[in-house]
Amino acid sequence: MRKFFTFFSALFSICIFISQDSIFRVEPPNWWAGMVHNEIQLLCYANNLANCDFKISQIHNDVHLKAITKTSNPNYVFIDIEISNNADPQNINLEFSKNGDLFKSFDFPIYKKDSSGRNGFNQKDVLYLITPDRFVNGNSENDDIPHLKERPERENIWGRHGGDIEGIIQSLDYISEMGFTAIWINPLLENDMKKSSYHGYSTTDYYKIDPRFGTNTLYKTLCSDAKEKNIKIVMDMITNHSGSEHWFVKDPPTNDWINFEGKYTQTSHAHYSVQDPYASKYDKKAFVDGWFVETMPDLNHSNKMMANYLIQNTLWWIEYSGISGIRMDTYPYNDKEFINDWSCAVKKEYPNFVSVGEEFPKFPHAATLSYWQEGKKNYDNYSSCLPSVLDIALMKSFINSIKDLEEKDQWKTWQEVYYMLSNDFLYPDPYKLVVFPDNHDTKRIFSTLNEDFNKFKMTMVFFSTIRGIPHFYYGDEILMTNNKGNNDGGTRSDFPGGWKGDKINGFNGKGLTQQQKEAQEFVKKLLNWRKTKNVIHYGKLMQFTPYSNGIYSYFRYDENDAVMVIFNSKDKSEIIQLDRYEEIISEYKSAFDILEEKQYILKNNFEIKPNSVLVLELKK
Ligand code: CA
């Protein structure tokens, strides 16, 4: 197996041939026969390449040269080739020569597409979100890569700390034992930025894992090692913008490669201008074409070559690495026609693959989010192939419901989350949404809850049992907080035990407080229970109006099973009146609370303790 990867790695490294005075790049570095996407465009880059003569040698009948395109920048040549479905694996050779002398040559391999396809994550899964620089430093030798611009600095919350892919591979057993079945990893592609490169959202090479995280080969190993432990890998991707240090930003092929002709123009962040029926063209452009920040130039998707480049890059990673899903960053910031072409190209190539889009507006609502989901009939006829959306609306409404329980009008307790779920009719398929209490862009959930352990337990139960596919953020299970700052750097702090010499170790429990250990056991029990519950994965949802007594309840149910979840957010015990649940519990005799492991008889009303949650499996 390792030998095979070394072989791939050797082929990959050919694509960046650095001679003394010039760089030669060909992207993508290879393709596959049997792909639906069988007409590909190679971006070739070298100093004055367009002034060379070009030929393809060793070309077979089943591979056709379709077009050669030059741009206003002589350093680029775009080559379109078509690969027949029945083409055999082969190398085609690209040759650029000047005055009869060979200038650059490149062997472009064509492999066979993996016939097993790519299956996406689904409702059976619980995702573990990892910020890789901050999780586990599995290889301290890659912490400082001399040719990259930023040096490691673990004491700085905005600096690079050294976590890497090797660290994730070493932690697969822990992740699996905790009950997680998929890992979404924040971006791993090269970010050769001068500072704050740790977060990974400023891509400087679309075909290369950042050497501080590992190599392409190691990423592939992670995918296959994880698969052996029944863990799926979800790749974080960004098509909206790149990093300002990207070579094609510094030397773009065309004047319109980057929006606003490469001149920094801040986005308005006015998400709603995309869906707003009253929006002006001015506002739409200001939002979609504006740059996320100055160091993240906005890519121009209306340039066909750019659009092609990004779509091919995505298909390349899916086929190359064996991932089971993509989380697409800043989804609505993309040109919406382009991002639809993108999601449909992925769907066409891999019908069972799943991508989830991030829409993170200031006032999140199902009305805004549902616009993007596959199957949605929109007023403007916009139709999408995107299977899933990150349900920020449910996250915000849940937090508003649980956070201020004491302060606000008690009648309102739980109303916001109840109300938001009642808007699920807006989604073509709410059961496919990804639900979560926090992520790398929010405060840590335990800090949001003012370190209230009971509320923490309620939160974990809610997101593990409500409709959708849950994700949690690394360290939620050991109550990690924002003690280093209420900002991104503070949220994304190091997982204890991930670095040699750490005094506290979340993996083996050394130095954890009693409460942290209890939290970890709680999450482990809950998620491992969820793994086996088809009714939680695919059952329907029925919710009951929250009462002013602080009780909120819902059921997940199908023809065979039902699970009842009841929250009491008040500081006193409450009696659960069962008569209102008659339509669903009538055929059941008893209920088993999976958390306290306690039996209830459904003939009698029963008590729920203050600030607690019951997860009841109904028994016939
Ligand atoms: Ca490292």
Question: Could you describe the 3D structure shown?
Answer:
It is a single chain. The protein has 620 residues and is α/β, with parallel strands linked by helices. It has 3 domains: 16-112, Immunoglobulins (Immunoglobulin-like, Sandwich), CATH 2.60.40.10; 127-243 and 300-536, TIM Barrel; 539-619, Sandwich (Immunoglobulin-like). Helices cover 25% and strands 22% of the residues. It has 17 helices and 27 strands. The strands form 6 sheets. The chain has an 8-stranded parallel sheet. Strands 20-21-22-27-24-25 form a 6-stranded antiparallel sheet. A 5-stranded antiparallel sheet has the order 1-2-4-7-6, covered by helices on one side. The longest helix is centred in the middle third of the chain and has 18 residues, at 304-321. The radius of gyration is 26 Å and the shape is elongated. Mean pLDDT is 93; it is low at 1-21. Bound molecules: calcium ion (CA). The site of calcium ion has 7 residues, from loops.
Which properties best describe this structure?
620 residues, Immunoglobulin-like, six-stranded antiparallel sheet, TIM Barrel, binds calcium ion, 3 domains, single chain, 27 strands, alpha/beta, 17 helices, eight-stranded parallel sheet
Please provide the count of β strands: 27
Major β-sheet annotation: 8 strands, parallel
Integer tally of domains: 3
Q: What's the CATH architecture of the largest domain?
A: Alpha-Beta Barrel
Supply Rg. Answer: 26 Å
Intertermini distance? 50 Å
Bound molecules: calcium ion
Quote the beta fraction: 15-25%
Report the CATH topology name of the largest domain: TIM Barrel
Coarse shape:
elongated
CATH class of the largest domain: Alpha Beta
For the residues shown, what is the average pLDDT? 93
Q: Could you state the CATH homologous superfamily of the largest domain?
A: Glycosidases
Lateral arrangement of strands in the main beta sheet: 17-16-15-14-11-10-19-18
Helical coverage, percent range: 10-25%
